[in-house]
């Protein structure tokens, strides 16, 4: 009793900031590496730096302003360039995030990530997180050591977004360059520009002004977005992406199947088209129960249902691969798998 009185007296003496700090929303930052944690010897270098050089504590220390509105903690999941993020990382991180978000004390989570495969992780989380709480994925195009590095402001915005109630029920979101994109539709559109993440057809769902998030719409979900429970999934079946072009031979397709691929995605030309001379191989794969999804190497648009293969709908090749992996992990076969892709 006496101790409680003393604590309360100290709190009063320290003013309301102490009491407020205890009430701030908790946001966990899951760090995986990337340019946001990258460092270079030269402060004008934005190509030759080492991605994943700084740990999560350093990222948090670099933006002390976050502590004014959120109580943050960091978890180092990996510290790699994002081409090295793999299904093992995705599965273990998603499971950790699901546990974290189930705690009443966690308001939201932020994932720091390299931008090269950021859209894949964002898409995966969007379909596998079992919570309506905010999940925000963030990266940077310039390493932390660069003049005008974009990572610190992006991280501030991401944590702010994960700490507001208005961000609930919107699925996973990508916060980059003062914009909020839906993880379901976002893609990387430029190799170097800071203005790289966009959903060219569907648009941004909001943005930030002076670090304050705003939304254009009330909370909303993409039509037909599936959800996969990965609680008991320990590994994802092998799915391979092949690229189509004039003179594409069917050899790599045959090799992929021989090599044990359980599903194939082809980044086809135009509306998912592929050369006539590989049709028999595609047909045979489908007959053998190996789903072949034809997506497109064209950046935007819909891929319609194909006679020999599954048209990817609005999913690009890398997103089609993730849907296919998750459906195959559930034990689903071609007829059920078709439904994920047929959206019209
Ligand atoms: N190569 C880096 C990565 O994806 C690029 C970045 O983070 O922007 O990790």
Automatic annotation (TrEMBL):
Database matches in Pfam families: Asparaginase, Asparaginase_C
Signal peptide annotation: 1-21
Protein residues bound to substrate: 82, 115-116
Superkingdom assignment: Bacteria
Coiled coil: none
Keywords: Hydrolase, Signal
E.C. no: 3.5.1.1
One Gene Ontology term of the molecular function aspect: asparaginase activity
Active site: 35, 115
Boundaries of every Asparaginase/glutaminase C-terminal domain copy: 238-341
Domain L-asparaginase N-terminal: 26-217
GO biological process, one term: asparagine metabolic process
Similarity section: Belongs to the asparaginase 1 family.
Cross-referenced NCBIfam families: asnASE_II
PANTHER family with a match to the protein in the record: 60 KDA LYSOPHOSPHOLIPASE, L-ASPARAGINASE
Official protein name in the record: Type II asparaginase
């Amino acid at each position: 009793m006496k101790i409680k009185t003393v604590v309360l007296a100290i709190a009063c003496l320290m003013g309301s900031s102490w009491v407020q700090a205890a009430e701030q929303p908790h946001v966990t930052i899951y760090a995986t590496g990337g340019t946001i944690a990258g460092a270079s010897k030269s402060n004008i270098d934005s190509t030759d730096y080492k991605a994943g050089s700084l740990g999560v504590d350093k990222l948090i220390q670099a933006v002390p302003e976050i502590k004014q509105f959120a109580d943050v903690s960091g978890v180092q999941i990996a510290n790699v360039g994002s081409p090295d993020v793999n299904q093992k990382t995705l599965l273990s991180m998603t499971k950790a995030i699901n546990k974290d978000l189930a705690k009443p004390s966690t308001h939201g989570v932020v994932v720091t990530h390299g931008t090269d495969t950021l859209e894949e992780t964002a898409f995966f989380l969007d379909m596998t997180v079992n919570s309506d709480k905010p999940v925000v994925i963030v990266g940077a195009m310039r390493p932390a050591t660069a003049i005008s590095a974009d990572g610190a402001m992006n991280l501030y915005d991401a944590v702010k977004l994960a700490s507001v109630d208005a961000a609930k029920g919107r699925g996973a979101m990508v916060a980059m360059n003062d914009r909020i994109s839906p993880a379901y539709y976002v893609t990387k559109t430029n190799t170097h520009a800071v203005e790289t993440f966009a959903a060219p057809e569907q648009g941004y769902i909001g943005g930030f002004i002076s670090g304050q998030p705003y939304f254009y719409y009330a909370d909303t979900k993409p039509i037909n977005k599936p959800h996969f429970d990965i609680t008991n999934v320990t590994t994802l079946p092998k799915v391979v992406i092949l690229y189509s072009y004039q003179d594409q031979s069917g050899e790599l397709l045959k090799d992929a199947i021989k090599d044990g691929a359980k599903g194939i995605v082809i980044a086809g030309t135009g509306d998912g088209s592929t050369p006539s001379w590989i049709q028999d191989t595609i047909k045979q794969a489908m007959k053998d129960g190996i789903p072949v999804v034809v997506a497109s190497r064209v950046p935007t648009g819909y891929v319609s249902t194909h006679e020999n293969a599954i048209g990817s709908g609005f999913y690009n090749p890398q997103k089609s691969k993730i849907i296919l992996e998750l459906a195959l992990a559930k034990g689903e076969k071609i007829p059920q798998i078709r439904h994920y892709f047929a959206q019209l």
